[in-house]
Amino acid sequence: MLQDLWFDPAKCLIGGEWVAPSGGATLPLFDPSTGEEIGAIARGGAADIDAAVASATAAWQGAWGRTPAAERGRILTALGRLVAEKVDVLARIEAADVGKPLKQARADALALARYLEFYGGAADKLHGDTIPYLDGYTVYTLREPHGVTGHIVPWNYPMQIIGRSVGAALATGNACVLKPAEDACLTALAFADLARQVGLPEGALNVVPGLGSEAGAALTAHPGVHHISFTGSVATGAMVQEAAARNVVPVTLELGGKSPQIVFEDADLEAALPFLVNAGIQNCGQTCSASSRILVQRKLYEQLAEFMGARYAALRVGRAVDDLDAGPLISAKQKGLVEGFLARGEGLEIAGQAQLGDLPDGGYYVAPTLFSGVAPDHTLAQDEVFGPVQVIIPFDDEAEAVQIANGTDYGLVAGVWTRDGARQMRMAKAIRAGQVFLNNYGAGGGVELPFGGIGKSGHGREKGFEALYGFTTLKTVAAFHG
Ligand code: NAD
């Protein structure tokens, strides 16, 4: 087992206590950098979800529900500070669990701390309105927590996604049941234990690791859950929404993407180039907002393919602890999926590909690959690969760029590179996506910026103040006093 762990990951954290899952079942834990089995995690099931929902209900109706907004904020702020103190240990745990290069894992831990700082500060700044109405009435609105919120998190950015989802839910007074991904639950458990250490009342945050088809399905179908926040694949998101619909429970879905960066011939190429490649290979391409399509105006096409290709050839891939440009993929399954996409690219021109050096045999490595001259309807230009694979697609004019950019089922984010201010405004309006970046990509991932998709990328918004609205329900009070 990992040296850095101060808790037993074969247990769940329910009601402020570490408890073995009912039946005591476990799942194996693998290090993606080597493929070695390095321990075991809890395989929680329906009975554990029942216990977690009961404990969250008690917290919401009890101590946590009575905690004033300012005090909730103080607890979250203190938790953010503790997370910031533990950045290095959290980064090492995450790197071993998900294969993320240490620098990137560290950035995730810092982002978690920042989410807690932001939502801690916002907790007592969310309020309702008074509404002018008929003579003799006073009308006002109250923003109230949903109650028990379920959080289903994927393996690619566990700390960031927990920060934006659980952080906002706790800030607004909900009690949470968190089901981390079976491939990445260690930092979720660490986080919940740190929350306990700073005085979060028992039951306000419960963590049940386990399989999606067991613990995940039990959580989404549970009648005691009042809101579900899901981040993951389109197929699972649809199942989650169906299950929630049976209980008429609201759902936020953060799903995948096929996000473009559109480079016009007047772009500042020097500024754009690092973003074009990094946005495709960060976290080894396992990023929902990865920029997997690069749309280039034809005049620049050859030059850009050459520049980007050279960057790809220089990329270094290694173990998470080597802290290079890219690490392994999360699992053998993900490696198989990405290799399948690479095989479907056979016959296409490869503008650049990283060389895999001397790597552990069992690790889940693939070579980051850039395809050029790809038709917009090719599977590599339409379907989410979730690996370090980008395509370059040429276009002639603005209208064609918009048509290609909007020509997938997804609509998560997009980047536009042009010096023409009027074109920037037109493109920002024309692109169907939850976020549009002008002359940048990702805007540094700011926690303040509402985030979410349209189309198959999902619905609802997380991050920023917008998330606080999503995690509350609005009550209108109309008082007649004559
Ligand atoms: P996934 O859908 O397989 O799993 C996500 C989570 O859902 C895991 O915790 C899993 O255990 C759980 N789950 C699986 N089956 C379930 C079920 N029947 N009921 C309830 N829960 C279930 O996705 P993944 O492979 O872990 O993640 C990759 C996908 O997630 C990609 O498509 C990616 O784009 C998307 N993603 C989106 C965002 C975003 O913010 N938009 C962020 C990260 C990942």
UniProtKB/TrEMBL annotation:
<dbReference type="InterPro" id="IPR016163">
    <property type="entry name" value="Ald_DH_C"/>
</dbReference>
<dbReference type="Pfam" id="PF00171">
    <property type="entry name" value="Aldedh"/>
</dbReference>
<protein>
    <submittedName>
        <fullName>Aldehyde dehydrogenase</fullName>
    </submittedName>
</protein>
<feature type="active site">
    <location>
        <position position="254"/>
    </location>
</feature>
<dbReference type="InterPro" id="IPR015590">
    <property type="entry name" value="Aldehyde_DH_dom"/>
</dbReference>
<comment type="similarity">
    <text>Belongs to the aldehyde dehydrogenase family.</text>
</comment>
<dbReference type="InterPro" id="IPR016162">
    <property type="entry name" value="Ald_DH_N"/>
</dbReference>
<dbReference type="InterPro" id="IPR029510">
    <property type="entry name" value="Ald_DH_CS_GLU"/>
</dbReference>
<dbReference type="GO" id="GO:0016620">
    <property type="term" value="F:oxidoreductase activity, acting on the aldehyde or oxo group of donors, NAD or NADP as acceptor"/>
</dbReference>
<feature type="domain" description="Aldehyde dehydrogenase">
    <location>
        <begin position="18"/>
        <end position="477"/>
    </location>
</feature>
<keyword id="KW-0560">Oxidoreductase</keyword>
<dbReference type="InterPro" id="IPR016161">
    <property type="entry name" value="Ald_DH/histidinol_DH"/>
</dbReference>
